[in-house]
Amino acid sequence: MAKKLPLKQRYAALTRDVHWDPSYVAAEKVFPHTTFEGIKIHDWSKWEDPFRLTVDAYHKYQAEKDKRLYAVLDGFAQSQGHLTLSDGRYLNAMKLFLQGVTPLEYASHRLFADLSRNFNGPGPRFAALCQSIDELRHTQTEIHTLSNYNKYYPGFHNWREMHDRVWYLSVPKSFFDDALAAGPFESLIAISFSFEYLLTNLLFVPFMSAASFNGDMPSMTFGFSAQSDESRHMTLGLESIKFLLEQDEGNVPIIQDWIDKWFWRGYRVTALVAAMLDYMLPRKVMSWKEAFELYFEEQMLNGLFPDLAYYGIRPPRHVEQAIAEKDLVSHQVYWTLYQFGFAAAFTTTVPEPSEMEWLAQQYPDSFDKHYRPLWNKAKRIQDGGDRFFFQGLPELCQVCQIPMTFTEPGDPTRIAQRASVFDGERYNLCSDGCQWIFDREPEKYRQAWLPVHQIYQGNCGGPSVPEVLEWYGITDGDNGEYLGSVEHRHWQQWHAQQAEQTAPMGS
Question: Is it the case that residue 408 has pLDDT exceeding 90?
Fold first, then answer.
């Protein structure tokens, strides 16, 4: 009988020992993409995988998690669990998650599959392979988790096409397209470190806590199932950056440049999460401001970056502007989504009075002064039997692709507007951070696929709103005002029926 190897030797035998050095062709021809970015690697064997997973252990572990997840999905579907949610409005947060985040999981699967082929060393290749499989599994389980709602509510049916076409989804899509178009080391820093390590807790932890708090057991179970993978991804992100920094001092300024760029790109993507946390959850878990302070300022700025200073790495450029915006960003983004809700694949509405009181408590320096008056005006229009929608198309930032909604640092009453001229053409940017990114690589960002520009150029089904919505794949009931919408009427009708069935005899 074959002798069972200790765990460390077994890991080495099944991962590192399957590597060989090519002898009949130069290494540069086998791995042609790991030199042009300027990163110097002297010893690939120094890469340490802290989890030392083998393929068989990986699949056994994931299969156990899948069994538990699908048992919860079956139980939720059989017991009409969608009626136990806190409110029909909650589903708008899940639509945004399905349309915006799930396709990113698949994009991440593609990116890490590419890295698992192109890195020279067996350690990072195997780590990238495991993460690639993780991301594909997350794509599948997220789709299965949310597919139950597609039986009952609009807005869940066409997320894949919407991700490629709808205006607000170009924000996360452009982020990953940007990373996929970068070199292997830059894309590793972009996703594994700047997004997975610095910012992923802002996405997953509040989202899954919110699912639990609003009665969404499937999404909560998926979140716990994915969280152990995300923790592994975060650790790999940290190991990646330490490995690159320790290999050569010349790598430090290159990596600092990438951290500066990808922090701001990732931070702008989380603006959608900010709006979701503060406005789209009927039962609030924590405000965006609280989440940002806990998961970014406390854990990353005060916990991680003092350690990275040892290598010569400082906090990201423009981080002070992100901190200053924590009182404003969720209000500015949700107000934009509300105004252009006729072209979104979810519904929006004016916050209820109790929600406005909660927002005032969470944002004592900004909500009552700058944003409550906007909602009061929208409510007066609504009470008069109308609904405020912005008539026109917004100007988009050339880098993050968010409409020009953010304000000048220190002045929440004035829209920030930056512009750069390249090759005789003017490009508009929403912030100092996006302008700095554009000016580094104008040849790349001048090619951005901007949804509004595409409409004007006649590439989105036609010039009228109905034609564009049809091209988006948005059908009647997916969009607009929540009150009186298809999902609102269904929610009320089904709960009225449920109340009748459970009422005592003779009542």
Answer: yes
